[in-house]
Write a structure and sequence with these properties.
The complex is a heterodimer of chains A (113) and B (115). Chain A has 113 residues and is an all-beta fold. Chain A is built from no helices and 13 strands. Classes of the chains: A mainly beta (113), B mainly beta (115).
């Protein structure tokens, strides 16, 4: 199974500052035939389902503010929020959909400092 | 607007069975590979299983904790996904989501396994 490890587990950032969450997969999730990384990022707020932010490691979902960006390839990935807003307080998950069993990171709780 | 609407959650005793349904609308359901994902109270996300589209073989894969107990099926004529859960255990207590990973997710339905 591919293990997804996020760091840190929790993060406190001041409003307007940058937040960075890392995700490392135990195996490569880059599919060579289409050169796509099968890696997504989600935001989850209490009582709500996960909301897709980023797919293919760096493609922003429609309607997601451009302060959210994804980067990385192979086994190392990053979600960056360029200027933290109050509504960004949530738990963030990375997820590999390269192969089954699909797996998720343990989550990173983002709070306001 | 794409919608995935679940039904069938509730309280069941250990060893019991339950079937969840997930109805899709405004969505090319018959082409989608569909998954079930669960989230135990206060915990992270756990993939349960997946069914491919019929054109891609319609085969299923399951996570180890549910293999042999849970069965995923689909009825493309009804745009509906199912999760048959048998021999339920207390550790199966969770919110269950259907999803066309990674994009579309249902609101989730709570399954509580308790005596």
């Amino acid at each position: 199974d591919i293990v997804m490890t996020q760091s840190p587990d929790s993060l406190a950032v001041s409003l307007g500052e940058r937040a960075t969450i890392n995700c490392k997969s135990s195996q490569n999730v880059l599919y060579s035939s289409n050169n796509e990384n099968y890696l997504a990022w989600y935001q989850q707020k209490p009582g709500q389902p996960p909301k897709l932010l980023i797919y293919w490691a760096s493609t922003r979902e429609s309607g997601v503010p451009d302060r959210f960006s994804g980067s990385g390839s192979g086994t190392d990935f990053t979600l960056t929020i360029s200027s933290l807003q109050a509504e960004d307080v949530a738990v963030y998950y990375c997820h590999q959909y390269y192969t089954t069993p699909y797996t998720f990171g343990q989550g990173t709780k983002l709070e306001i400092k | 607007e794409v919608q995935l609407v679940e039904s069938g959650g509730g309280l069941v005793k250990p060893g019991g069975s339950l079937r969840l349904s997930c109805a899709a609308s405004e969505f090319t359901f018959n082409k989608a590979w569909m998954s079930w994902v669960r989230q135990a109270p206060g915990k992270g996300l756990e993939w349960v299983g997946r069914i491919k589209s019929k054109t891609d073989g319609g085969t299923t894969d399951y996570a180890a904790p549910v293999k042999g107990r849970f069965t995923i099926s689909r009825d493309d004529s009804k745009n509906t996904l199912y999760l048959q859960m048998n021999s339920l255990k207390t550790e199966d207590t969770a919110i269950y989501y259907c999803s066309s990973l990674p994009r579309r997710w249902s609101q989730g339905t709570l399954v509580t396994v308790s005596s």
